[in-house]
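lol ok so funny story. i was supposed to be doing the assay writeup but got distracted and ended up predicting the structure for this chain instead. priorities right. anyway since i did it might as well share w the group, maybe its usefull for someone
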Amino acid sequence: MNGALPTLRACDLEAAPLERRWLIEDLWGAEAVGIVGGEPKCCKSFLALDMAVAVAAGAPCLRHFPVTSPGRVLLYAAEDAPHLVRERLEGICRAAGVRFDPLDLHGIPAPSLRLDQAEDQRRLRDTAQRLAPRLLVLDPFVRLHGIDENAAAEVAPVLGYLRDLQRRFQMAVVLVHHARKGAAGARAGQALRGSSELHAWGDSNLYLRRRGERLALTIEHRAAAGSDGIALELRAEGEALALCVTVDGSDKGTAPRDTDASTPSSLDRVVEALAQASGPLPHRELRRLCQMRTSSLGAALATLAAKGRVQRSDLGYELAGQDRFPFPTSL
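and the output, tada:
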């Protein structure tokens, strides 16, 4: 029939490989837009910056979630002074065991950015076109507009603009946003301040809440399974201050998926697999050889990288320094 739409059988639809499904495995989808939300003082900015460092460096986010597609990051931090943003980024880099100087992360030092203004939209679009980032981080939403956040008719065009950026430049977009006051008992997405358009907009959404002295992370995806109650803490190690997944099992009901990721036996398995390889191993092949979960392998690699025992290149992971040579299997 003339003018009929093309069709495909289900078995002929394109299948996306792992590297095209995730930007940060299990945490943020590839080219996903969404919200990092939570109440004040819940470390939303720390989480967004940790994601930025992880993608720019190719290191596991929160020392737990592997980065599938590392690349350049573009960041606009509207509330914090540049020196404070730098201090936080440097601390996260130290915690992640990556170098700060070569980090492919670009900040926008402009004093203001209004996503509801045509001129600022054009400037951000031109910047994204020039830098071609894999990830754009905007923190926080309340400082990026002059609209009524409760009016869907005003919120939708701003979110539509960000969706257009995502599609045009094939990048992920993280928008940091506050939760409503007194919404501690509400479902994570429903606790966001303003129009329900914000929750509905996200392909991947992350929500932080305080439970006593601990932080709990909820993960939602439009097209994948999520997680609830992952325990986090803001940990200081020397001068490094960064969020990390709690792996000691001390929070019943909120422990992360794996608790053995940094045990000697797990680290040994990774080191032995890399020692027997003739060259760098991609993450997927290393996971197959070690027979470990993705999250466990990511945490083990982060631990080994922080110790200077493993390094990452475009080809995969390999031993670093003296571990290139024969060594005892025990750590």
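The chain has nine helices and 13 strands. The two ends are 69 Å apart (CA to CA).
back to the writeup now i swear
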